[in-house]
Amino acid sequence: NGKLICNNSHEQYLPDINRIDSGEVFLFWSDGHNDTGASSLIMQILDVNGTELLPENGEDVFSGITGSALNVHVLENGSSSVILWEDYRGYAKNQILMQSLNNDGSVNLEQNGVPVSPPTSSSYNTLNLQTAKNSNADEFCVVWREIGDSYNYQTFAQIMQIDGTQLGPPEGLLLSDTEIHDQENQHISCINNNGSIEYYAGWSEARVS
Fold it and tell me: What is the SS3 string spanning 55-123?
């Protein structure tokens, strides 16, 4: 029946996993254990024998600023883990954040992470976070969708370094902007084209008036 990782009385959902070079396995999930109506991002580390290295039920990596930590993505980075998530704040300002973790679970960036995208100015959501990492350098690319107040759909991208530096503009790189066409299923990939690193983004679009 597997190994029990967390038995908090609140819901745990949207897990992700990463194994680092030294053999430890990092587990991440959203957890509603803080009784605030929001969810936190929780982490547990297992050694090569499956022994838990953090306290029972894990430790907080992030507690939602005003909402919930959702849509967790983990990127492999040798001896560390890089995690990204959406701070989902309901009908307020949503934001994509990142954190880099050492093999003992200590953080490399500021507490509660650093921004990948700015807080959305609309009353709608940042959605469909997808990532692709350059395996030959400490950088990765993120793509996401935003829905504005006038139901205008936009696709954005941002290139990030592992230390939290944004290589694109703070608001992200606008890839597509349309007033009435729904954009969804955003994806991003990275290839090495004869030594040149290239990122390719794609999405589906319903071009119906």
Answer: CCCCEEEEECCCCEEEEEEEEEECCEEEEEEEEECCCCCCEEEEEEECCCCCECCCCCCEECCCCCCCC
Q: Does this model's pTM top 0.85?
A: no
Report how far apart, in Å, the C-alpha atoms of 148 and of each of 93, 124, 159, 177, 179 are.
11, 6, 22, 10, 9
pLDDT at 123: 44
Tens of pLDDT, residues 185-196: 888 888 888 888
Nearest one of 152, 150, 157, 148 to 186, comparing CA atoms: 157
> In this structure, which amino acid lies at residue 15?
P
Q: At 164, is the pLDDT very low, low, confident or very high (cuts 50, 70, 90)?
A: very high
CB atoms within 10 A of CB 158: 22
- CA proximity to 155, closest of 190, 118, 202: 202
The structure tokens listed for 17 are 């996993």
119, amino acid identity:
P
